[in-house]
Write a structure and sequence with these properties.
heterodimer, A: about 240 residues, mainly alpha, 2 domains, three-stranded parallel sheet, 11 helices, elongated, B: about 525 residues, alpha/beta, FAD/NAD(P)-binding domain, 4 domains, five-stranded parallel sheet, globular
């Protein structure tokens, strides 16, 4: 945030620049219920009310450059208590989306770019993915009571398609087993796809709605191709 | 001949009332200090007379028969009317000095802004050159929803019709009136920016070339801003018109602390005054928005039209003055809150104006005023007969509670409904107003074996008779002060205030009083019987 002593000449500010945004930020009555309910309030001085007010006044650049929008966990408690029904979490995503992709913190942007390019955040090739799936399936089949277990890939006409969070085929393969054992016990007719299996959608965190649309569209496409009616999208 | 209603005023509220009354067949007289009156009623069955350029000189008589004397250029005009409605406009005082500003072509009052928005010829010159308009409101003294409404309407027009950026710099934004929150939202949609000041105030600088510069810290973002408006609009304080203040004096109507023609008393709501047959509506009685005025006008017309039925009955239980005993000291005339005491060759009570509060009878130094069923004797006839303290095993105090019919009697009812236990020796005597309780009433109670006397009445400021409860307190204090000198415990008498919804408190008050009396033991007067 800029120094508080600097005086801003209102001749230089365009209050109307965010008015077309659909988040109702101008209705703010500055009651501060948002700030009171926010679990991240106070971290680096973060204050959702101040953020809403700055957008309403048109002071956006400062927010785009600031760390604030990335401190928000997008939990949505603020908008749950807001008497004016301002969409504060979506407003935060909008501000995040205005940041240069180079300056997006952490691996969010890189992971998203990988997902858009290769179908998953890890750039994991199809053969490697299938190898991991089969390997884990064999481990499950070694356990008593699961001797018959198989992990069906690209099974046409299955009842349920499940997406996979990239960490489950990376560092947390044990977690795959829990899901699969449940499917097995429930005698579920399920499948995973060999391509575009990624269940995470980091466009949500970077405010990139277009990317989210692409990711969701791929899942829909696969369901149509494999003629599957039900989706399990753990995330 | 039908009875007429006189309306003072020449503004929208007065005209609404006139229109309403005429349409229901009432005859009216409009009296205004204005030189002209452009009131033109639509189809109506009542008769109308308009007295322009006229000021009230005096008003005698009472409801049903007010004798009005007015003057136009020292020429007397007399009319007799059944009722009067005060519906004068308010007046506005600019708040320039509060903000350290001086009015100029670009530092203007809210009224001036409203004029500019109404007058199409002005639009070109002032609004086309401007970019930013600032409204200053409630930053020094609290504002009012009526002012907030006008500011928001103006800001809305400036934003949407003239594409100007408006800023509303306000302390508490007064939106507690019909539709104002929605209006506030509309102004925000149109682009008005609200800057709210709670702990700080903006610094307003008047520059030599008539321009204004405002510096402030936005209390939410904590950022410092500089604002150079092209037009600065300053709010106004609304006060009653000078003529309305005069009317209040001439008509003997109690006013509120700001001089509006209606006492700050819940019993006067909505359009009543301390005088039967004299109503007050619209900006004469309080600061009002347009919709408030329309409601008030309709209320006044409604009450006015219903008055005739009341006048058919001549009440028989009103105060009467014994001409043989009266020495014309005028105590009654001075104290009557309803102006029901008439001064003719002798002092008489106008029965229609009398509200039977009993203040005159209680305060008359000659005991010359009587009200049926309110004499000390007649009240105390309600006491239980054959009360014999000797038969009582344990001491059960006999407590007489004089209760005002408007508060304590209702609180007692509530107390019963709520199942509170009340002292078994409690006798409640209902009085129309605690102002009717005289020294004689209290002495009579003690003579009739009371161990304690309690007066329960309305909270101060809530008395229908304005000061009846104050007189009651004086009477009780007077006795309590004298009791010790004759060897009588002063705690045997007490006065307390409550409201009709205080059932629990009623029970607490009487039970605590009983406990005090049990401690004191039976009254000495009773023992000596």
């Amino acid at each position: 945030m800029t120094s508080r002593s600097e005086t801003i000449d209102l001749d230089q500010v365009d209050h109307g620049r965010c008015r077309s945004w659909p988040f109702l930020q101008d209705y703010c009555v500055t009651c501060a219920l948002c700030a009171g309910s926010c679990p991240a309030s106070g971290i680096d001085g973060f204050d959702p009310r101040m953020l809403v007010r700055m957008v309403s006044l048109g002071l956006v650049e400062e927010l785009v450059e600031a760390r604030w929008p990335w401190i928000c966990t997008l939990c949505g408690k603020c908008e749950n208590v807001c008497p004016m029904e301002i969409d504060i979490a979506d407003l935060v995503r909008k501000i995040r989306s205005l940041r240069d992709c180079e300056k997006v913190p952490g691996i969010l942007y890189k992971g998203l770019a990988a997902a858009l390019e290769t179908g998953n955040n890890l750039r994991l090739p199809k053969e490697d993915f299938i190898f991991i799936i089969e390997d884990v399936a064999e481990e499950v089949a070694e356990e008593p009571g699961f001797e018959e277990f198989k992990a069906p890939v690209d099974k046409k006409g299955a009842n349920l398609l499940t997406t996979i969070h990239n960490k489950l085929v990376n560092t947390h393969t044990e977690d795959l087993k829990h899901w699969w054992k449940i499917f097995h016990a429930a005698q579920e007719d399920w499948t995973v796809t060999s391509e575009n299996w990624e269940g995470t959608s980091w466009g949500y965190f970077t405010g990139d709605d277009a990317a989210m649309k692409v990711m969701a569209g791929r899942i829909v496409e696969q369901m149509e191709q494999l003629e599957i009616k039900n989706l399990l999208w753990p995330e | 001949m039908k009875d007429k209603t006189l309306i003072f005023g020449n503004g929208p509220c007065a005209h609404y009332i006139a229109e309403d009354l005429l349409s229901t067949g009432e005859d009216i007289v409009i009296a205004t200090t204005d030189k002209t009156c452009d009131f033109s009623p639509s189809e109506h069955s009542g008769s109308i007379e308009i007295l322009t350029d006229t000021r009230l000189v005096s008003c005698r008589g009472a409801v049903g028969d007010f004798r009005i004397l007015t003057a136009r250029n020292n020429k007397e005009i007399k009319r007799t009317v059944a009722g009067v409605i005060v519906a004068e406009e308010d007046q506005r005082k600019s708040n320039f000095s509060q903000y350290g500003l001086i009015g100029s072509s670009n530092v203007i009052t809210l009224s001036r802004m409203k004029e500019l928005l109404l007058d199409s010829s002005h639009k070109q010159s002032i609004f086309l050159k401007a970019k930013k308009v600032v409204f200053l409101t409630g930053l020094v003294k609290e504002s009012h929803p009526a002012i907030a409404e006008e500011i928001m309407h103006s800001a809305l027009r400036l934003q949407s019709d003239f594409n100007l950026q408006t800023y509303i710099l306000t302390a508490n934004l007064k939106v507690a009136a019909d539709g104002l929150e929605a209006l506030c939202r509309e102004t925000k949609e149109a682009g008005a920016v609200y800057i709210k000041f709670t702990d700080t105030r903006p610094e307003i600088h008047s520059k030599s070339n008539d321009s204004v510069q405002i510096e402030f810290v936005d209390e939410i973002t904590l950022k410092k801003f500089r604002l150079t408006p092209d037009i600065t609009v300053v709010d106004e304080t609304i006060v009653p018109s000078d003529y309305a203040v005069d009317l209040a004096k001439l008509l003997s109507i109690n006013t509120d602390p700001d001089g509006f023609v209606q006492a700050d008393n819940v019993h006067r709501f909505t359009v009543f005054t301390n005088r039967k047959g004299i109503m007050v509506a619209g900006p004469s009685r309080s600061i009002q928005t347009c919709s408030d005025q329309i409601t008030d006008a309709a209320n006044a017309a409604l009450v006015s039209a219903g008055r005739m039925a009341d006048l058919q009955i001549v009440p028989e239980d009103r105060a009467e003055i014994d001409k043989g005993l009266c020495i014309r000291c005028l105590t009654c005339y001075r104290l009557c809150p309803y102006r029901a005491i008439m001064l003719n060759t002798r002092v008489v009570v106008e029965p229609h104006a009398c509200e039977r509060c009993g203040i005159c009878a209680a305060q008359c130094p000659r005991g010359a005023i009587h009200i049926k069923d309110l004499e000390p004797e007649s009240i105390l006839n309600h006491m239980p007969k054959g009360y014999n303290p000797q038969k009582e095993v344990a001491f059960t105090p006999f407590i007489v509670a004089f209760c005002c019919s408007r508060s304590a009697v209702l609180a007692r009812e509530l107390s019963r409904c709520m199942g509170h236990e009340l002292p078994s020796g409690l006798k409640v005597l209902e009085v129309p107003c605690s102002g009717s309780i005289s020294l004689d009433h209290i002495f009579a109670a003690f003579k009739k074996n009371a161990d304690g006397v309690l007066v329960l009445t309305c909270h101060e400021g809530n008395c229908h008779s304005e000061r009846g409860n104050v007189y009651a307190r004086q009477t009780v204090d007077q006795i309590a002060d004298k009791f010790p000198r004759i060897g009588f415990e002063k705690d045997r008498i007490a006065i307390q205030t409550l409201a009709s919804n205080m059932g629990t408190e009623f029970a607490e008050m009487v039970n605590r009083f009983e406990a005090n009396i049990i401690e004191l033991g039976p009254s000495r007067l009773k023992k000596n019987q």
